Amino acid sequence: PQEEVKVMTVCPWVANTNIVETVVSTMAEEDKWKLNTWLHKPIPTDEVAAAAEELIVSGKSGDAITVGPGIMYFYPDVQTQLFLMYKIIHTILVTIGMVRRGQAVTTNQIWMTAIIILFFMGYLLHMVLTLIGL
What phi and psi, each to the nearest 5 degrees, are found at residue 40? Predict the structure, then answer.
């Protein structure tokens, strides 16, 4: 029988473990205030375990779950969406003659094109709303 192997990860911000306690014990007193902030507050290990359980139950291979003080979420996988957006922008730039088909598009060109597309879509939405009297 073939077994399915899943690769997943749990990413706790700062978990209250022996390692963290050791680091805290060596911190300067003037830096310990950070431990009371939302970002650096150590979370109980049972919250990390609950995140791991959620990942196993609801996750799929390649997922990452992040857990912090009172917060738990799947880290969004946006690689496919970004690739498609870049592909569409590259196609637009090639079509209008801004770049050659074999030329790499720079990040600045991608962002400028995305901004122009957003403004154009906003203008179209404005025209449609005006047309229907809103």
Answer: -105, 0
